[in-house]
Amino acid sequence: MLDAAERISGAQIHQRSHGCAEVVIAAHANGARLERLAQAGSAKAILPRIHDPRPEVVFLNTSGGLTGGDTLRYALRLGDGLCATATTQTAERAYASTTGAAQANVDLKVGRGGWLDWLPQETILFQSSNLKRRIVIDLAEDAGCLFLETVILGRHAMGETITSARLDDRREIRRAGRPIWIDPLRLDPDSLGRTTSPALLGPGRAFATLVLVAPGAADALGPLRATLTVPGVEAAATAFEGRLVLRVLARDGLPLRRQIARAVACLRPGPLPRVWQYQD
Amino acid sequence: MIAVPSPPKASPGASLLAFQQWLSPAFPTGGFAYSQGMEGPMAARELRDAAGVGDYLADILRFGSGRVDATLLCHAALGDSDADALADLALALAPTAERLREIREIGAAITALTNALNGTAHPPRPHAVALGVAARGLDLPGAQLAAMFLQAQATTLVSAATRFIPLGQTEAQLALARLAPLILDLADEAARTPLEAIGSATFRADLASAAHETLDVRIFRT
Predict the structure, then answer these.
(1) The CATH number of the domain where B80 resides is what?
(2) Which structural domain, as residue segments, surrounds residue B185?
(3) Which residues form a coiled coil (chain B) (predicted)?
(4) Is residue B24 part of a domain?
(5) Residue B206 belongs to some domain of the structure
């Protein structure tokens, strides 16, 4: 669970944390059935409505954040024909690290005819943080997904400016084993320093990527573009080959969250995940 | 997969001339019609002088499509790499519909032309991969292929900016020439970068490429 090794990170003393939560759910005549739940260390999975026709899985990192040497893995496998939502209980925090990168892995598998909404809360990068993360959604031939990742640089309300942090965050969606969409986000002190660049983040400190993978995803392009009206955000959507991709950039988290909530509501009928701390 | 007998490698001198020919603006790939989404910031007057364009290109090369594509090119140029897997990877990495179309269309043109010149029968693959596969018959190190490719990419975009903004010819060429040290560093790095380490930070360039689809007036195809 926790290593005895202690180290200084900022003003706080952390213990190195490791966590792994694995969930396997199968479709069942009366909804869904939990086939496997394995939790170790700082990672937990909460299944508040497992027997609903569309169950929800909530992952949680009880260590409160990630720093150098920490490892965290969330895994979810959905059986054939099952549709589910997975999210995280709180924002993930990448804290200052003087001892290399924290390593996070998210492995999500969706069976034939299945569907996954991966709608985690944001990842907040603190000054001098160092996070390496690999997110893979493995879709069966005819499965689909809605995918969201949000990154916020520092806590705007606290007046933090992040000039030095590392994020190596590869988001990959595969269909039948072949990559169909990869977003290889990589931030480092050099790119973060280019705050006036029209090519990088500019003055933006909060950004999100939302991807819909489904046959006919392009049909949602018009309705999605119609939601891109929240003041204080730069947003643009594009659609190609069964993929719909929305990118949103803002100076801080508040307008970004409002825009994301509207966009998700447009692409996904029904209420937002209950654990989201923001609603439109 | 059909095995295509690989012809003997060209001499280093002949290789240099061949690769330069394939990267030349006169090589009919239609590359001049694309701006990789740069038309957006140019139209919004975020890019309006040679210094701004130079900085923008440096960012694109260093943190975005330049670094990504140069790495793909180096891997594709290795005779034992899986060109079809690299093609899948390149297509999956395309951030927008227009960038996907751009790498596909230019890649198809490069494949058709180099097949005709080299007597090969490669299937069409996206831009950087098609170029790398064609270069397998050349006797040039990966870093040199990458440097020439990156300079050609920068040349295409400088040319787009020169026409659009417009820039003076000399200041535009100065901005391009100033990228040389960066290009050499990036090329060297690309030849040593594993596929797993490919990364990009050009969020606003990707946003601009998506927004280009709905620009009222478009001079460039991307």
Answers:
(1) 1.10.4190.10
(2) 36-211
(3) none
(4) no
(5) yes
| Whether B211 contacts chain A with CB within 8 A | yes
Indicate yes or no: CB of B89 within 8 angstroms of CB of A179: yes
CB–CB of B68/B213 below 8 Å? no
**Which amino acid is residue A189, in one-letter code?**
P
* Pairs of residues, one from chain A and one from chain B, whose beta carbons lie less than 8 Å apart: 105
Identify the DSSP state of A156.
G
Is B84 an interface residue toward A (CB < 8 Å)?
no
From chain B, the residues in CB contact with A138 under 8 A are none
Measured between alpha carbons, how far is residue A81 from residues A48, A139, B48 in Å?
20, 12, 53
Assigned domain for B114 exists: yes
| Model ipTM over 0.85 | yes
Chain A residues lying within 8 Å of B209, measured CB to CB:
238
Q: Determine whether the interchain pair A200/B59 forms a contact, defined as Cβ–Cβ distance below 8 Å.
A: yes
Assess B215–A contact: CB distance below 8 Å, yes or no: no
Q: Is residue B119 part of a domain?
A: yes
At B184, the amino acid letter reads L
Is B97 in Cβ contact with A200 (below 8 Å)? no
Q: pLDDT tens across A83-131, in order? A: 999 999 999 999 999 999 999 999 999 999 999 999 999 999 999 999 9
Task: Give how far Cα A151 sits from Cα of A121, A221, A229, A249, B109, Å.
Answer: 9, 23, 21, 10, 38
Count of structural domains within chain B: 1
For residue A191, which residues of chain B lie inside 8 Å, CB to CB? Answer: 63, 201
How close A180 comes to chain B (CA, Å)? 5
Tokens 């000399």 locate to B170
Q: How many residues does chain A have?
A: 280
